[in-house]
């Protein structure tokens, strides 16, 4: 199986402290990859280094044959990264429809063609098109943020803790959407997640970070209870 993303010896610092200490990751093409680990081990920082919000001091990030560390954040997005940060970051004063338009315009796409697909994944988005983004619940905003990222037709959808602080029925809907995307087989998904059952249900492969480096990685079916206890249980 080929990899859509290959990270080698990635190092990055924040305010003088070494946060990423030589990360090595392989995300197989057209599958769901879960990046896990306890609080503060560097999961979000790894995603930021991929999309260009955190500068790498060392190492390479090869995305579909392109070396990302040499590109600006804007140009990285154009290579086909769809990033949904922690906390969603939708525009609260714009309507749901306007929020979606921004996702599409970002890659110069026509909105119509892709919208129906988003509505199938998240019916609530269609229902709430005229509402202001800020009026949606946290879970609905998460769905909107994922929908908006999908409108850019990414090769790699990057989700940072999509279940965090979200009610169980919406977690299920997001899980179903990830399954549908996986079955469509058009893109790869890099999921940062602390919710182990969600990862186990959806993930094909995983990596667990510990103090800025990968402590364990492999097929999700080979994630053992011992590893979970050692690196994930709090
Ligand atoms: N802006 C910042 N200034 C100083 N330290 C930071 C900053 N952002 C992150 N850190 C530190 O970097 C380390 C890694 O943070 P990161 O957010 O990548 O971890 P994480 O695994 O995503 O954790 P979480 O699940 O809590 O988001 C932590 O120890 C954190 O305290």
CATH class of the largest domain: Alpha Beta
Sequence of strands across the biggest β-sheet: 6-7-8-3-9-10
What is CATH's topology name of the largest domain?
Rossmann fold
User: What is the number of strand segments?
Assistant: 10
Continuous helix count:
9
Structural topology:
Layout: E1 3-14, E2 17-28, E3 32-36, H1 43-51, E4 58-63, E5 66-67, H2 73-78, E6 81-84, H3 96-105, H4 111-121, H5 123-127, H6 138-150, E7 156-160, H7 168-184, E8 188-192, H8 196-202, E9 205-210, E10 213-219, H9 225-231
Parallel strand pairs: 3-8, 3-9, 6-7, 7-8
Antiparallel strand pairs: 1-2, 1-4, 4-5, 9-10
Helix pairs in contact: 3-6
The structure holds adenosine-5'-triphosphate.
């Amino acid at each position: 199986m080929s990899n859509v993303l290959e990270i080698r010896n990635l190092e990055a610092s924040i305010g003088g402290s070494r946060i990423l200490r030589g990360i090595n990751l392989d995300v197989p093409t057209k599958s769901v990859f879960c990046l896990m680990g306890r609080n503060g081990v560097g999961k979000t920082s790894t995603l930021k280094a991929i999309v260009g919000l955190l500068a790498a001091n060392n190492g390479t990030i090869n995305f579909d044959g392109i070396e990302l560390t040499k590109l600006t954040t804007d140009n990285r997005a154009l290579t086909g990264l769809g990033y949904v940060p922690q906390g969603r970051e939708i525009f609260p004063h714009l309507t749901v429809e306007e929020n979606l338009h921004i996702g599409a315009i970002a890659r110069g796409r026509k909105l119509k063609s892709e919208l129906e697909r988003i509505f199938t994944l998240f019916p609530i988005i269609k229902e709430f098109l005229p509402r202001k983004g800020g009026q949606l619940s946290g879970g609905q905003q998460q769905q909107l943020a994922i929908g908006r990222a999908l409108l850019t037709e990414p090769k790699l959808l990057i989700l940072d803790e999509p279940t965090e602080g979200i009610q169980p029925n919406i977690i299920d809907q997001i899980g179903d959407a990830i399954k549908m995307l996986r079955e469509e087989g058009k893109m790869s998904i890099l999921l940062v997640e602390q919710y182990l059952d969600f990862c186990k249900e959806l993930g094909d492969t995983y990596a667990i970070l510990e103090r800025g480096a990968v402590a364990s990685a492999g097929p999700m079916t080979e994630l053992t209870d011992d590893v979970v206890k050692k690196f994930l249980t709090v």
